[in-house]
Amino acid sequence: MTVRHYEDRVVTAFLYCAVFWALLGMVAGVWVAAELVWPTIDFGIPALSFGRLRTAHTTLVLFGFGVSALIATAIYSVQRTSHVRLFAPGLAWALFWAWQLAIVLGAASILAGWTSAKEYAELEWPFDIAIAVAWVAFAVIFFGTIARRKVEPIYISNWFYGALIIVVAMLHIVNSLALPATLGKSYSLFAGAQDAVVQWWYGHNAVGFLLTGGFLGMLYYFLPKQAEQPIWSYRLSIVAFWAFVYTYIWAGPHHLHYHAVPEWVQSLGMVMSLILLAPSWATMVNGIMTVAGAAKKLRTDPALKFIVLALAFYGLATFEGPMLAIKSVNVFSHFTEWTIGHVHSGALGWNALITFGTFYFLVPRLAGVPLYSTRLANVHFWLALAGTMLYVLAMWGAGVSQGVLWLSLDDLGEVRFSFNDVMAAMQPYYLLRLLAGLAFLAGTVLMAVNLAKTFAGRPTAVAMPPAGRRA
Amino acid sequence: MPARFSLLSLGKILFSPAEAFQAVADESPPASRVFFRFALWIGLLPPLFAYVGTTLFGWRLGVEPVFLPQPTVIAICLAYFAALLFGFVSSAVVARWMAVTYDASQSLGRCLALMAIVGAPLAIGSIVHLFPHAFLNVLVLVPVLIWCMYLLYRGLPVVLGTGPNRGMLMASALIAYLFVAFVSLLGITVALWGSGIGPQIGT
Ligand code: HEM
Ligand code: HEM
């Protein structure tokens, strides 16, 4: 066979799994949200207890849904921006199976009570090693494809995907350094304040390079595709990239304000977080101007709606973030639901919406037929918007109430309200958040049905690199 | 002769917004009319309701009610009014600024009227401030707010005379501005609070 078509079947496979993990992860999210309203619905089963299920939620949505979606779109776009078939497709399939297996077993291990007690890196050392190996495979496939590219410049989306691969490898390996004691238990090499700083260097840059950088790669490829218009300012995108990479790395200590880490480290984290607003917003402006420039010829398309709204939430999250990093705001917001609201304005409004938009764009192309139902997609859009808004507003309300209650002192200057009082006051907000989660989940179910009906058992369509450019 | 844009058209604005949007598009009311015959007055409602509610029932954050001294309540309500007016006018100005990019109408009157119609349900909904129980307020105002966002998406293309696609894009861009304005306000408030300016939360 001399035909060297793009390797898209593995993209389809990752995409299916991403949708599956999104559904499962959100069900877990809805369940933990419900546990905060009705604490007894863990039925005394340890695997359903809040601590374990919450960790399962974050693991499934971040690494099951988020990373599968990122790998799918990276593989799809790197071939098209390089005009070559994927490097080592066999390895890509191995990566696919390894990753999905790691998520299945990893989630099971968390429910069974294994944890390294490091947030967003709870999986124990056997998984850490497996993930590191799988990640190297991802790097080989991705950079191998870039090395064989038929176009001289490396397109901007690949810079972001590339940064995702390199930085996450670095973070993951350093933060996971530990001495194994048994198969299911290890002890971190870091202790005390050092451990905290390393952990949040990891935590924040996972947010930075995975939830932000990786998804910006998605944005930079799929937004101009969708708008049929080149990026508004290519130069701005490159400048913003380097500013972004340089600044993010230093911002982690804003998670440790007023904790037992040196004062200057906290201040550094705060200043770097404020500077971070500039590259974050440069990208948003670039995206908005790209679609605005193409507005005249755009067709009404559900995919684009999701992507554009995602940009608005991206603007919110990256504005709110630097603000929360200011110490005089953080003294109020830290430990409150405000943080959770910030997380989900990013996670739902930005990460999930842009992925949904990308999937609505991608699936008709992978299946070679139009989307099964535009109407369902439009209903999904409103459910997603309403769900996200309701979530964020409920958490703002809860967070501000919590902050006020905790800072209230009585006549003797003692804390006026006990933890129990404050938790009881949160009940109504938790109920609202549960509704928000259900609406968001319902929208995701509609999407899953819509995408499945579009595929309807069809094989992935065959697409070829542009003729004449092939070696 | 259809009613011109004023408080008298409040019923239409609330209950058949589509007609109200069309009327603004046809009539293109001057900015001063929108502001003085409509926006200023409905903008007074939330701080008024808040004043009455806070004085009568105290703030309820879910635990026991908090009563504040009269001068503090008045100061807060005035600040609230100022913030609302600022939000209203600034979003209309931002809309007008964005209109260049999206090929939409740059009439300030239309932009103000758009924001007024979109914001009207919130102003009326703020009647729940009469009982300033935090959760009750969230419960009522959040659905109203989502309705307002829907109105923005629906109304913008009509009022500013741009296509549905460009309207959708511009509405999203405006929403981004509104988010940022709101969250800044929240941040400034708590930062001031934390540094001891504003109502005493202790004692
Ligand atoms: C310029 C960009 C951003 C900055 C400076 C920033 C800053 C912050 C700050 C200050 C906190 C609260 C720390 C605390 O009090 O504990 C936080 C929490 C968080 N942010 Fe952001 N944020 C940004 C963007 C984003 C985006 C786009 C996302 C995407 C989803 C995100 C996800 C998170 C998460 C998951 C947490 C919770 C961490 C935890 O478990 O405590 N952030 N961020
Ligand atoms: C149906 C949708 C969802 C619901 C109902 C939901 C619910 C929840 C709940 C109840 C928590 C625990 C909050 C607490 O401890 O107070 C949580 C945490 C978290 N969720 Fe979700 N979630 C949803 C979707 C998502 C998605 C799609 C993502 C990521 C892409 C995500 C990322 C996170 C993260 C990172 C945290 C940890 C935040 C922190 O520790 O600061 N969630 N979620």
CATH homologous superfamily assignment of the domain at 1-189 in chain A: Cytochrome c oxidase-like, subunit I domain
- The total number of structural domains of chain B is 1
Which whole number gives the mean pLDDT of chain B?
85
Helix content range of chain A:
over 70%
Structural class of chain A: mainly alpha
Specify the CATH architecture of the domain at 1-189 in chain A. Answer: Up-down Bundle
Ligand roster: protoporphyrin IX containing FE
The biggest sheet of chain A amounts to: 2 strands, antiparallel
DSSP, total strands of chain B: 0
Beta-strand proportion of chain A: under 5%
Write down the overall mean pLDDT of chain A: 92
Number of helices, where a helix is a run of at least 4 consecutive DSSP H or I residues of chain B: 7
Could you outline the blueprint of secondary structure elements for this entry?
The complex is a heterodimer of chains A (471) and B (203).
Chain A: H1 9-37, H2 50-82, H3 89-111, H4 125-147, H5 156-176, E1 178-182, E2 185-188, H6 192-227, H7 234-248, H8 263-294, H9 302-324, H10 327-333, H11 337-367, H12 374-407, H13 419-455
Antiparallel strand pairs in A: 1-2
Chain B: H1 10-15, H2 17-27, H3 31-57, H4 70-102, H5 108-125, H6 134-159, H7 164-194
Helix pairs in contact in B: 2-5, 2-6, 3-4, 3-5, 4-5, 4-7, 5-6, 6-7
The structure holds protoporphyrin IX containing FE (2 copies).
One protoporphyrin IX containing FE binds at residues 119, 207, 211-212, 251, 254-255, 273, 276-277, 280, 317-318, 321-322, 324-325, 330, 333-334, 339, 342-343, 346-347, 350-351 of chain A.
Write up what this structure looks like.
The complex is a heterodimer of chains A (471) and B (203). Chain A is mainly alpha-helical. Helix content of chain A is 73%, strand content 2%. Chain A has helices at 9-37, 50-82, 89-111, 125-147, 156-176, 192-227, 234-248, 263-294, 302-324, 327-333, 337-367, 374-407, 419-455, and strands at residues 178-182, 185-188. In chain A, helix 5 (156-176) runs antiparallel to helix 6 and helix 7 (234-248) runs antiparallel to helix 8. The longest helix of chain A is centred in the last third of the chain and has 37 residues, at 419-455. Chain A is globular and about 80 Å long. The mean pLDDT of chain A is 92. Chain B is mainly alpha-helical and 203 residues long. Chain B has one domain (2-194). Chain B is 75% helix and 0% strand. In chain B, helix 3 runs antiparallel to helix 4, helix 3 (31-57) packs parallel to helix 5 (108-125) and helix 4 crosses helix 5. The longest helix of chain B is centred in the middle third of the chain and has 33 residues, at 70-102. Chain B is globular and about 50 Å long. Chains A and B meet through helix 8, helix 9, helix 10, helix 12 and helix 13 of A and helix 6 and helix 7 of B. The site of one protoporphyrin IX containing FE has 22 residues of chain A, from helix 1, helix 2, helix 11 and helix 13.
